[in-house]
Amino acid sequence: MQQELSKNKYWLRDLFSACWQVLNFSRRVVLNLIFIFIAIVFIAAISAGKEQPVVITDHTVLKLNLIGDIVEEKTFVDPYDEFFNDAVGNKQNTPEILLTDVLEVLKQAQNDQRIQALMLDLHGLRNVGLSKLQEIGKAIKSFKETSGKSIFVYGDYFSQSQYYLASQADRVTLHPMGAIGLDGFGRYRMYYKSALEKLKINSHVFRVGTYKSAVEPYLRDDMSEDAKLANQKWLGELWTMYKEDISDSRSLEVSNFDEKLDSFLDKFKKANGNFAQFAKQNGWVDDLMSHQEFDQFVNQEFGGGKKAKFVNFDQYLKYQKQNPQSNSQQKVAVVVAKGTIYDGKRKPGEIGGHSTAELLKQARQNTNVKAVVLRVDSPGGSAFASEIIRNEIEALKKAGKPVVASMSSTAASGGYWISASADEIWAAPSTVTGSIGIFGMFMTFEDTMSDFLNIRTDGVGTTEMSGLSPFRTLSPQMGDVIQLAIEQGYDQFISLVATERNMSKNDVDTVAQGRVWSGKTALELGLVDKLGFFDDAIQSAAALANLDTFGVQVIKKRLSPMDQLLQDLFSTYAPEIKSETATQNNIMQAFGKLLKQTEHWLNFNDPMGVYVYCLECEGL
């Protein structure tokens, strides 16, 4: 019965998936020769000259120019997708920077006597979760306190993420026509109930959890009061952390952040409608300078009146890799679980139940690995795949290797499921976690077909289950079957949490119900063990394994030689190609985003159609 249910349930999705594959195949054929030609040109250009080592001289300023998104693991970029998007003028794939690379550069530079100062260049910085901002901010603060070197920043405009890092500088300079955008945190979604009714589409939603609001857009035309209450709490906690961190680094009052338009308007009038003057009067920046004035200031301060010497982020990172630090044979292994959780195998940047479990298995079988840190940055996905990963964590513990879960910006639903069995769970104060709930959804189009197209479905089957189809009415009995399966899945989830967290099922149910929590509140509720960041989790894993000296080894999937070559080529040229993302055509951007979201949902592939996913956590 379950096999028949699964088969029919995904008929429509498989049809869309097949169409998508045909589209993919067609564009691959068209672009294949173009790609091969350009790849050969790239290879020839790279091979033409011998790579020169990076040389750093005394009195150099480190320019931390961060272009793109800060991520836990870089997403594998299909070169065919890249050329297709370029061809239509829609560069979807923003450059990515590893969080660990940023932290390592700052750590090494603070003790490098050749580096006299740190300049933050944040113009190209894009999406960064608050927990990652806090980790980088902590590293910048350590750079300042340990080395005593000055830190300065210049911006034409600072987004909310950019300003968080900019505020850590000793001197913040803004262009006289610039601005700072501090909009706070929000979650606004589209709701489809009336539209589905108009189209005669029937939504059959199965869920457990008062706050499992991922399915609300299909049941309502607005956000429920329960969802508003829950979302306002964790969003408010994140906003409070943001304001307090900025106030601390800039020695400001928290009241400098305007949350009401009336208050903002009064201050803005006093600045004569000038955003830059408003920022200075509010204490957010120290100076207003043009590009030429700022260059003159830098040369005077760090070049003795001559042109100051700089080494940028990529160059300094390359230097560090050319001169690796020796470390112990005993290792703390790091396995990154970043992205949506799917069944099967996935490429880097996404989580596959089998592929991520395989990485954990490699750590278990490596005799040099004494402990493991599972770095989680995921809103969840397939329940089955989550369990496959968790099973491997249990196997690691049975092998005598302690496992510490380190939660990044998001570790909710399935992201919490795979963390639950770790010996310790560390979360950042601003980590978005919890969302312990489960749901399923099945849409039927029988009324759409009959009322609009006069098409009806009829026939016979050997069982009542054989007639399950998106184009037939879902029987109440089959709805009960699906709801029972969802309830069993929820019971399995809270039972797992109760066992691993040493809580009663009733206590877990009270804090579960699909509700989202900040890491700070999750600690108070007993869902995590400690608050801290990535390095804290690594140190704790080493302590659990009784390691005095150790090295850190990231275990990741090995790409094929061709994939690795293509990845290297694109990572070399992508920052220069894509740094001007603001000039993209808005219509093409929207179209590209729609295609990407469509592909994302079509890729959901849990064998039983049961998902532990936090829609509210997307984009954090």
What value does the average pLDDT take? Answer: 85
> From the alpha-carbon coordinates, what is the Rg to the nearest angstrom?
26 Å
Broad structural category: alpha/beta
Stretches where pLDDT falls below 50 for ≥5 residues? 573-585
Percent helix range: 40-55%
The major beta sheet can be summarized as: 8 strands, mixed
Beta-strand fraction estimate: 15-25%
Q: Number of helical runs? A: 22
Shape: globular
Question: CA-to-CA gap between the ends?
Answer: 39 Å
* Overall number of strands: 22
Describe this structure in words.
With 620 residues, the chain is an alpha/beta fold. It is 47% helix and 18% strand. It is built from 22 helices and 22 strands. Strands 10, 13, 15, 16, 17, 19, 20 and 21 form an eight-stranded mixed sheet that branches. A six-stranded parallel sheet has the order 8-6-5-4-1-9, sandwiched between helices. A two-stranded parallel sheet has the order 2-3. α15 (414-417) links the parallel β15 (403-412) and β16 (424-427). α2 packs across α3 (79-87), α4 (99-110) runs parallel beside α5 (130-147) and α17 (476-501) crosses α18. The longest helix has 38 residues, at 11-48. The radius of gyration is 26 Å and the shape is globular. The chain starts with a helix and ends in a 7-residue tail after the last strand.
